[in-house]
Design brief:
Elements: E1 2-5, E2 8-11, H1 17-22, E3 29-31, E4 36-39, E5 45-46, E6 52-53, H2 56-65, E7 72-74, E8 89-94, E9 98-101, E10 112-119, E11 129-131, E12 134-136, E13 138-140, E14 143-146, E15 152-153, H3 157-162, E16 172-177, E17 186-190, E18 195-197, E19 238-241, E20 249-256, H4 263-273, H5 283-289, H6 293-298, H7 304-316, H8 325-335, E21 339-340, E22 350-354, H9 361-364, E23 367-386, E24 414-429, H10 431-438, H11 441-460, H12 471-491, E25 499-503, E26 509-517, H13 534-546
Parallel strand pairs: 1-8, 7-24
Antiparallel strand pairs: 1-2, 3-4, 4-8, 5-8, 6-7, 9-10, 9-13, 10-16, 11-12, 14-15, 14-19, 16-17, 17-18, 20-23, 21-22, 22-23, 23-24, 24-26, 25-26
Helix pairs in contact: 5-7, 12-13
Length: 611
């Protein structure tokens, strides 16, 4: 990564490839050892074409959702070991440009600490603040302004203190009372005598920071746009702490690579596409390329005509399979033979259906199959980001098109992606058991309460068009969290390392618990063996869900309670269902253990009521 300062680029720090896609992508604010920066847009990445990632179903979905003519996936550029090789990396722009000097004044023994607030252009060499001919270090100011459309910029501190139209250019100071860092204890003061408490910037009705001007510093110096676009009224700027958890939410889509007809041919073409076959214009060109040793080895056993058809498909952008990512996955897992993918040459997927425990009615009456997923490959692509509020994909992995996502580049033709390899266990549920459960009066009554909470959430978030995910999703999601906790106690992985993938809908119902790593060797095998003891883990999960340390308050929580504002949760809290957000695909929303097991509230809506 490189930090850009006054037009100069120099090495500044490193971040893992997977973190670039999920946490520190374009537009993210990062504190490096020597600088505070904002990660540059995709136009400012160099060397990213070294590693292209292929996943046809994900590419087809992204192309449809983002209305793109075509899309390619590339891994974030990695450092090269060869010191003579061309420099690769990601440009990071210096941001913010206001600094607090590490020079301190205290007047009259007061507990108020005063430090100069200075713009970059007023600093000396090395971003040092000079006073009385002595240089002092500076640190970037913690506060910037942003809007929910992702725009971000420095606060004009002179306007903040004096108001619009003021022409005072005297020195600014940041006065802090105590050591808590609370906004009510921080005041911005001008030497002319004007001052304003920083807490005033949180009052949206007073418009202290003014309207958003559409600044996009991660895309370069001339990337400003009108906030709202097309003449629409821009939003009001909001105060944002650079390091706060709501400063950046990467918006990603993912897919599990599954065996499909023609998969072996596509894998072979993948391996030589970028260097050779993308330039082929006919079947004769394919034959000529096959004379090269690497191409010949990769395409061995595949006729030139078949290879040329695959090349044509790629060039026209046609999809290789169904665009319903999760539908395709669950259909394959629910209808698969005993062995799946054991003959795949690239070994990206290998699963085996096991026999259900004989005589175990808990399993037999509700579960249709259990699948050991010995090997899997997950591709995650970033499509945008938001600030202040996250906007995740819906229960079927679809992105809402009305979400105000910020762009990763000015001309978006490719997206950053990573591929993870790992293992997992899939549990498929009987559709007839779920349908019978949905018909129970107690379940319908509980569903009405959860719908009421969802409606209250939509009322508090005007403009959202999200749909209620349905009671089967609440059931599968809540059971998944209980199972992750139960399995993690025995499989060797921490709960934060196990992730979930929930399947609901006409294609079938199921839960995939998996762990994956960017490491080429994948994972260790402990999770996949949990399939052999699925009955034991189900009973442990049920036992853990029946009583929460916060009962009866947890069990009796009403989703539409406007005082608590936990609208998307039923009987769920940190004492029972909530997991690390790295594990949950819905950021710990849409959970209710009352739909899974009987609780102390005893409303009779539990799927495992008679256990």
């Amino acid at each position: 990564m490189a930090a850009k300062k006054r037009g100069q680029v120099r090495p500044a720090g490193q971040i893992r490839q997977s973190q670039i896609v999920t946490t520190f992508g374009p537009g993210a604010m990062v504190d490096l050892p020597d600088h505070a920066v904002i990660i540059g847009g995709l136009e400012h990445w160099t060397g990213y074409k070294d590693r292209q990632i292929f996943e046809d179903r994900l590419a087809a979905k992204v192309k449809t959702l983002l209305r793109m003519d075509g899309v390619e996936f590339f891994a974030p550029p990695a450092d090269r070991d060869d010191p003579m090789a061309e420099v690769t990396g990601i440009t990071a722009w210096l941001f913010p440009e206001w600094f607090v000097a590490q020079y301190e004044e205290r007047q009259g023994g007061s507990n108020v600490r005063s430090r100069p607030l200075v713009h970059r252009l007023d600093l000396g060499k090395g971003l040092r603040y000079e006073r009385d001919k002595r240089p002092y270090k500076t640190v970037p100011v913690r506060f910037v302004q942003a809007c929910t459309r992702g725009h971000v910029s420095d606060i004009d501190w002179r306007v903040f203190v004096h108001g619009p139209g003021a022409d005072c250019t005297r020195n600014l100071w940041m006065d802090e009372r105590g050591t808590s860092g609370d906004l009510t204890d921080i005041t911005i003061r001008c030497e002319c005598g004007q001052f304003k408490a920083l807490s005033a910037a949180t009052k949206l009705n007073d418009v202290p920071l003014g309207p958003c001007k559409g600044m996009r510093p991660w895309l370069g110096n001339f990337a400003r746009e009108q906030c709202g676009g097309g003449g629409a009224k821009g939003q009001i700027n909001r105060l944002l702490v650079r390091s706060a958890s709501n400063a950046y939410f990467a918006q990603t889509l993912s897919a599990i690579s599954i065996p499909e007809p023609g998969g072996a041919l596509r894998a072979a073409v993948d391996s030589v596409w970028q260097d050779f076959l993308q330039y082929a214009e006919s079947a004769e060109d394919v034959a000529r390329e096959r004379r090269k040793q690497k191409v010949s080895a990769a395409l061995e056993g595949f006729p030139d005509a078949d290879v040329w058809r695959e090349v044509q498909r790629r060039k026209t952008g046609a999809s290789a399979g169904a665009t319903g990512i999760r539908d395709a996955e669950v259909e394959m897992l629910l209808s698969s033979p005993d062995e799946i993918g054991q003959d795949q040459p690239d070994g990206v997927f290998h699963a085996r259906t096991i026999r259900l425990p004989a005589g175990d009615t808990l399993v037999a009456d509700r579960i249709s199959r259990v699948v050991k997923v010995h090997r899997l490959r997950e591709v995650i692509a970033q499509v945008g980001f938001t600030r202040f509020e996250s906007a995740v994909a819906d229960v079927n992995g679809e992105l809402a098109l009305d979400v105000e996502r910020a762009a990763l580049s000015l001309d978006q033709t490719w997206l950053p992606a990573v591929e993870n390899r790992g293992e997992g266990v899939f549990i498929g549920f009987r559709d007839e058991a779920i349908k019978a459960w949905l018909e129970r009066p107690a379940v319908k009554a509980r569903g009405a309460q959860l719908v009421g909470g969802f409606d209250a959430w939509k009322h508090a978030h005007q403009g959202v068009t999200a749909k209620f995910p349905g009671l089967p999703y609440f059931l599968m999601h809540s059971l998944s969290h209980l199972l992750i906790t139960a399995v993690s106690l025995d499989c060797g992985y921490a709960a934060s390392s196990i992730r979930e993938r929930i399947y609901v809908g006409d294609a079938g119902h199921g839960i995939l618990l998996y762990t994956a790593s960017p490491d080429a060797e994948g994972t260790l095998g402990g999770l996949v063996e949990a399939a052999d003891r699925i009955g034991q883990y189900l009973r442990q999960a049920i036992a853990m869900g029946e009583l929460c340390s916060n009962d009866p308050l947890c069990a009796q929580h009403e989703p539409d309670n406007r005082e608590e504002e936990r609208f998307l949760l039923g009987a769920a809290c940190h004492g029972c269902l909530l997991l690390p957000e790295s594990s949950c695909e819905r950021r710990n929303d849409f959970l209710d253990r009352a739909l899974v097991v009987p609780t102390v509230d005893g409303d009779g809506a539990a799927f495992f009521e008679d256990v």
